[in-house]
Amino acid sequence: MSNVVLRSLTAVVCVYAATSLVAAADVKLIEQLPYRITAPGRYQLARDLESAAKSGAAVRIEADDVTLDLDGKTLSGTAGDATSAIGISAVNRKRITVTGGTVRGFYFGIDIRATDRVKPQSSGHVITKVVLDRNRYFGIRLEGTGSKIAQCRITGTGGSTRPGHTIPHGVRLLGAKNVLRESCVRDMVLKRSDDGKGEIVGVHFDAGPGSVMENNLIVELESEADSPADPEDKKERRFGVWVNAGPNKDTFLRARGNRFYGFTVPFAFTPGTDGRLSGNEFQGSSEQAIRGKPAGQVGDNLFSQSAKPPECRVNE
User: How far apart are CA 214 and CA 174, in angstroms?
Assistant: First the structure.
């Protein structure tokens, strides 16, 4: 091999190595909690991190155009069932991406909020390939427009002992043109009040014209974590998807290819909402599968008598 070729190859290797070092330097490592993100850029968990704080946020995002890469690590809240602490928090931000790890044990796992429900100043977010495990009230609350949750697994949500916070949600999406795709919401924790009533919501769409829900698995099984009740006095309401009108009463949900198991009501549309539902599969629904205006579309969907709940293999 000639010296010219060797010099050329060496130059290429050096340039590649330098580029890689620059790229690595651009990633800011999160090595302790709590952590505030105040500038755009890419951030990454350095290792598994725990927070025993009973309030506040473990990671607070205070800038637009932020990517938070959990890098396969776990962000854990250890304050218990009465916590009000949030795993990852942002308010009125744009283009936040959270990806690739686990958020466990917080009051809200991921909470991206908009202070104005009519004209949200929050938009363009992506949450993908994240496991939300045993968060006490909401797995994900995502408020804003044009945002997406994909390939996430939300399990064991609920169990908060904070007063007035007894209806856990796996996912809540508020705003126009939001998408939930190829995700799994499983095994909510049902807490009943003294009169025996209890309620859970797998997915909640609110104030959302142009909402889309595709190829998700929404499963509810009774477990030891649920509050006990007399079998003849179970007044709980188990909603797979709750669709709320919002201030403008213009929520429209297009749902296709989703599978439901163990919910009293897989779809509940409140007054002022509408949707197009097709190719969804209902297992173990004890009452009307679709309530509200789209109820006449029930024939465009499937019913299964299988007693075996489908497996949730997203992000295993």
Answer: 17
Where do the structural domains in the chain lie, given as residue ranges? 1-27, 31-304
How many whole angstroms separate alpha carbon 253 and alpha carbon 262? 21
E strand or H helix that includes residue 21: helix 3-26
Question: Which residues pair with residue 211 across a beta bridge?
Answer: 253
The tens digit of pLDDT for each residue in 145-203 reads 999 999 999 999 999 999 877 799 999 999 999 999 999 999 999 877 666 667 899 99
Q: Which two tokens stand for residue 219?
A: 């499963």
Q: Are 174 and 206 in contact (CB under 8 A)?
A: yes
CA nearest neighbour of 267 among 279, 257, 249, 282: 282
Output the CA–CA distances (angstroms, integers) from residue 295 to 69, 99, 239, 306, in the order listed: 41, 36, 15, 23
Query: What DSSP character marks residue 194?
Result: T
Q: How far apart are CA 121 and CA 184, in angstroms?
A: 28
**Count of CB atoms situated within 10 Å of the CB of 149:** 28
Distance CA 169, CA 94 (A): 23
Quote the DSSP letter at residue 310. Answer: P
CA-based end-to-end distance of the chain = 48
Q: Quick: pLDDT tens for 241-253.
A: 999 998 889 999 9
- Whether the CB-CB separation of 156 and 134 falls below 8 Å is answered with yes
d(CA 170, CA 93): 22
The pTM for the full model equals: 0.88
Q: How far apart are CA 300 and CA 286, in angstroms?
A: 19
Neighbours of 53 (CB within 10 A): 18
Q: If one looks up domain 31-304 in CATH, what number appears?
A: 2.160.20
Radius of gyration of the chain (CA): 22
What would the two tokens of residue 209 be?
């014209």
